[in-house]
Amino acid sequence: MTNVKMKVNGKTVAREVPDETLLSEFLREHLRLTGTHIGCDTSQCGACAVHVNGKMVKACTALAVSLEGAEVTTIEGLANGELHPMQVAFHDNHGLQCGFCTPGMIMAGVDMVNRYKAEGRELTSEAIRHELEGNICRCTGYHNIVKSIEDAAAKM
Amino acid sequence: MYPVKYHKPNTIDDAVAALAAGEEAMVLAGGQTLLATMKQHLASPSDLVDIRGIDGMVGACIDGDTLVIGAATTHAEVAGSAVVRKHCPGLAALAGNIGDPAVRNMGTIGGSLANNDPAACYPSAMLALGATIVTNTRQISADDYFQGMFATALEEGEIITSVRVDAPAKAAYAKFAQPASLFALVGVFVADGPHGVRVAVTGAGDDGVFRHAGLEAALASDWSAGALDSVDVSEDGLISDIHGSADYRAHLIKVMAKRAVAAA
Hints:
The complex is a heterodimer. By secondary structure, chain A is of the alpha+beta class. In chain A, helix 2 (85-92) crosses helix 5 (142-155) and helix 3 crosses helix 5. In chain A, a hairpin with a 2-residue loop joins strand 3 and strand 4 (55-58). Chain A has 2 domains: 2-75, Ubiquitin-like (UB roll) (Roll); 85-155, [2Fe-2S]-binding domain (DNA polymerase, domain 1, Orthogonal Bundle), CATH 1.10.150.120. Chain A starts with a strand and ends with a helix. Chain A is built from 5 helices and 5 strands, in the order ββαβββαααα. Helix content of chain A is 35%, strand content 16%. Chain B is an alpha+beta fold. Chain B has 2 domains: 5-50, Uridine Diphospho-n-acetylenolpyruvylglucosamine Reductase, domain 2 (2-Layer Sandwich); 60-263, Uridine Diphospho-n-acetylenolpyruvylglucosamine Reductase, domain 3 (2-Layer Sandwich), CATH 3.30.465.10. Helices cover 32% and strands 23% of the residues of chain B. In chain B, the strands form 3 sheets. A 5-stranded antiparallel β-sheet of chain B has the order 4-5-8-6-7. A 4-stranded antiparallel β-sheet of chain B has the order 9-10-11-12, sandwiched between helices. Chain B has a 3-stranded parallel β-sheet with strand order 1-3-2, covered by helices on one side. The longest helix of chain B is centred in the last third of the chain and has 18 residues, at 246-263. The model of chain B has no long low-confidence stretch (mean pLDDT 97). The A-B interface holds A 2, 18-20, 22, 41-44, 46, 49, 52, 55-58, 60-63, 65-66, 68, 108, 111-112, 115, 131, 133-135 and B 1-6, 8, 28, 31-32, 35-36, 38-40, 48, 50, 52, 76, 99-103, 105-106, 180-182.
């Protein structure tokens, strides 16, 4: 067991957890932040995508204890009084069907828009499709997901 | 996942000590393969020794004409590094196309090389570039380092600290990705540099990454995609599985080699 302290959605949290606790388990079971979904648990689907120190990672493939002192943002931490532009865009463009993959899609969308903006690159719809390689939608609703991210990119 | 004890040493000596003290300790460098393997109970280390907190393990710099990349440098960091982009853009491009964006933020070059997955991208680059794998105890040339599927020259308790790559005149990688895993069904790295003209193939060999003498000879006399037309790529010793037969992979080796030459 290790006492791990990190900042999750702006709030400092500390929990005594077994060393093998995954970040996804830490968020869902210890902090009850169940917006981070576990789809495949094999690092492929991206439903558990969160931001760690500003970078997107798969929460199912990181040990919580390895993230001592890290700043973590989950889907619950995106809205700030009102919905984040990415969330609004997914709503406006019907960017989801069953909704299971949506938290990961939105975290991936925010990450790619931020990254492309910082690098001064244009986030084309082709680039969005390429960037979504690690996020799987089993409803196959990719078309509207891409539209949502394009829409949000124009507003962020 | 089975219980495991986590260590995060600040020095290489402490890391070596923690590795030696654990009953079945393993190095954790990024975990994008190791943690997934542990979840499937295919690996059950007693201890994990995280090397990401050790000074000098992260980042890339140039030493004369040699690129030095820390073992715990992530794929995203290699892809985005101004130094790597300048001195070996083919290597930066390779790193920027490993797995997916989230995996690239965690997976590391040292982790990939220590694991030596037969379909990983990095081994082909190291072999084609004639790189040197630096560990806490010695320097190992890529020619001696890769020893078959998941097998390397690393001794028990030996930790990769960096890799050294002499900047090539030309180099590029072309990958035909297995669409589900994003690993290489066939990946070919071509390089023309201080170590000569070298071509290394990943994803295809029954025994892991390998150099292809025929492709190298053709490119040494004429560095062009067209020069590869007449090269015979045999299917002997190539993987045949659900994703592709040996003759399909043999065909892809030539196609990927031509694409890599065109991109270099």
